[in-house]
Amino acid sequence: MHPSDPGRARSRAVVASPSTSLNGARRRCRPPSEFQHYFSRKGLIERRPAGCVKAIAASASPHSKCKSRKCRPQLRFTVMQRNDGRAPDEIRPINFELNVAPHASGSVLVSMGKTRVICAVTIEETVPRWMKEQGVTGGWLTAEYSMLPYSTQPRKPRDITKARVDGRSVEIQRLIGRALRAVIDLEKLGPRTIWMDCDVLQADGGTRTTAITGASLALAIACRKFVREKKFAAPPMRKLVAAVSAGILDGQSIVDLNYEEDKLVTVDFNLVATEDGEFVEVQSSGEEATFAGSQLDEMLALGRKGIAESIAAQREVLARLMVTPSSS
User: Fold this and answer.
1) Pairing of strands 279-286, 267-274
2) Which of 81-85, 103-107, 239-243, 261-265 has the lowest mean pLDDT?
3) φ and ψ at 301, to 5 degrees?
4) With bands split at pLDDT 50, 70 and 90, how would you rate the model's confidence at 297?
5) Which of 46, 143, 165, 215 has the most CB atoms around its CB within 10 Å?
6) pTM as predicted
7) 40 and 185, same domain (yes or no)
8) CA separation, residue 316 to residues 21, 107, 241, 285 (Å)
9) Domain boundaries, position 210
C-alpha cells in the first residue's frame, strides 16, 4: 500500500504473565489464545512479569481465586502525544496560493501542513457521451487525481508506466467529483464539462481531504471568472465544501492526521461537508479494530470543527478577491 494512504499500525500493548508463584502457591492462568500467540509473534504484544491476579494468602485455594478472576491477560496501552505538538482538535496550518496554473480558469496550491496539492479547473464545451445518449440535460463535473512521482519517498511510478490508473487514485478522484457535484448546479452549466485536476506535490497524510478543500476554492474562483466572461449569468456553485480526516490513536480521537499518525491510528475517518454543515460523505473504518458510538461522535465533532475552520479560510480568500480588481 502506498505511503500516502498506509495500512494502520497497531498500538503496542503489555500483557501479564500466564503464571506466577506467591507464598509458595502456584497460580495458573489460562494459556494464551491463538489471538495472543499471533500478535506476540508479530511483535505487537510484550509480556511482563506481573501476575494476572491479586496477591493471595498461602492458605487460600489458588485454583478458586484464579478461576474467580478468570486470569485474563491484562493489557496496558502506551499513551502517545501528537508528534507535531498539536492539540487533538487542532488542524494543521492551511494556506492557499492562487493562480499557480495560468492556463486554468481557476487554480490553487493548497497546503495542509506539509501536504501540498495543486487543484486546477478547466472547462470544455461538451458533455460526456453517456449524457448525450441518455438525453440528460445540463452539464457535468468530473475530477482526476494523481500523485507526482516525487511527492513521496520512495518515488511513486507514474500510472502511465502501468498502463492503468491505480485503484486508490480512482477511488479518490471519484470522491472529489462527488464532493464538488454536491455543491454545483449542473443545469446551470449548460452542455459543458468542468474538469478538476488535483495533483499532489508533497504527501504527508490527508491528500484526498486536502484536495477537496483546495478544489472547492479553485472551483469558486473559476465560477467567478466564468460569470465575468459571460459563460454563466450567475455562479453555478451554490456553496463551499471542505474535507478533513480524523482517527483514533491510543484511544484518543484526533483530527487532521499527518503521515506518521496515519500509520498508527486504529480507526480511520474522513468527513466531507458543506459550509452550512450538511454532510456529503462520511467514511469510517476500523483497521483490525472496532470503535464505539461515542468515539464516532467524537470524530464527527472534531471533523465538523476542522471543516468549519477550512471553510473560514476559503471565505477569507474569496473576501479578498471581492475587493481586488479582476486581472482579466
Assistant:
1) antiparallel
2) 81-85
3) -65, -40
4) very high
5) 215
6) 0.74
7) no
8) 67, 16, 14, 33
9) 94-322
